[in-house]
Amino acid sequence: MNDGLRLLAVDDELPALHDLARLLRAHPQVSEVCCASAGTDALRLLSGGAFAGLFLDVRMPDIDGLALAGVLRRFATPPSVVFVSAHEEAAVSAFELRALDYLMKPVGRQRVEQAVARIAEAAVGDAGRSLPEAMDDIVPLPRARGGATRLLHRSEILYLQSEGDYVRVVTDGGRFLVRARLGDLEQRWRARGFARVHRGYVANLQRAVEVCPSLDGRACLRLQDGSELPIARRELPGLRRRLGV
To answer: Fewest beta carbons less than 10 Å away: which of 39, 76, 133, 218?
Structure first.
């Protein structure tokens, strides 16, 4: 089919690359699948022709997938990016690069079909290019079992709690553990209304309902679900300014 999707698959592990390419070529909306086993080869192919979508491994020896996706943001019409990885810790960074999807290895046919469908939607006219912008507020939260990733809107998050090398993400629908640093998420999400309220907590201020002082000079932040987070004394003045209280 001449009007199908032209895709590029990139992975330095050749068996995984061949399996992915086979699944993509079997999809009825796909007309061509090119392959690259290195980031430099991928850049050469991307510079030489237009692709609707890019299936990109995260970990590669020359240029890793996150760095390559960052370069693509400088393209006038970059392809939609779908990350493919055996590791979940890069999911947050991947979606902040406006990836359409994040597939966990080994990749199954159903997840590939879902990703191709998203690429097809994004490729329908120039208006379709607004989809990656909308995905900027989508946060991937990997589940502990089954390798699945739950996609939530950032507004559904109540607060983040430090758990050593992990961060516990507390949402309206449950709790998720992601491999990340609380300080990194605080910096990335500050412009989205999140703020450090305590050494171990970052709160979504859009979900805050009350600052509750106590007799000993301490205070806590009450959220819409009734949760109360401790507020460090050094954080209280800045928090009051941001909340206007």
So the answer is: 76
The class of domain 5-136 in CATH terms is: alpha beta
Would you call 88 helix, strand, or coil by DSSP? coil
End-to-end CA distance of the chain: give it in Å, rounded. Answer: 61
In this predicted structure, what is the pLDDT of residue 95?
A: 67
Q: Where are the domains of the chain?
A: 5-136, 154-243
What is the helix (H) or strand (E) element at residue 204, kind and residue range? strand 201-204
Question: Among residues 132, 226, 136, which one has the least CA distance to residue 189?
Answer: 136
- State the pTM of this model: 0.55
Burial of 76 (0-12, 13-18, 19+ CB in 10 A): exposed
Core vs surface per residue 20-34: b (16+ CB within 10 A) or e: bbebbeebebbebbb
**Dihedral angle of Cα 150, 151, 152, 153, to the nearest 10 degrees:** 170
CATH fold group of domain 154-243 = OB fold (Dihydrolipoamide Acetyltransferase, E2P) (2.40.50)
The pLDDT of residue 71 is: 83
Residue 138 sits at the vertex; the CA angle it makes with 81 and 24, to the nearest 5 degrees, is 30
114 CB contacts (<8 Å, ≥6 apart)?
101
Give percent of the chain with pLDDT exceeding 70.
84
Of all helices (H) and strands (E), which one includes residue 112?
A: helix 109-122
Tokens at residue 59, please?
Answer: 């970990």
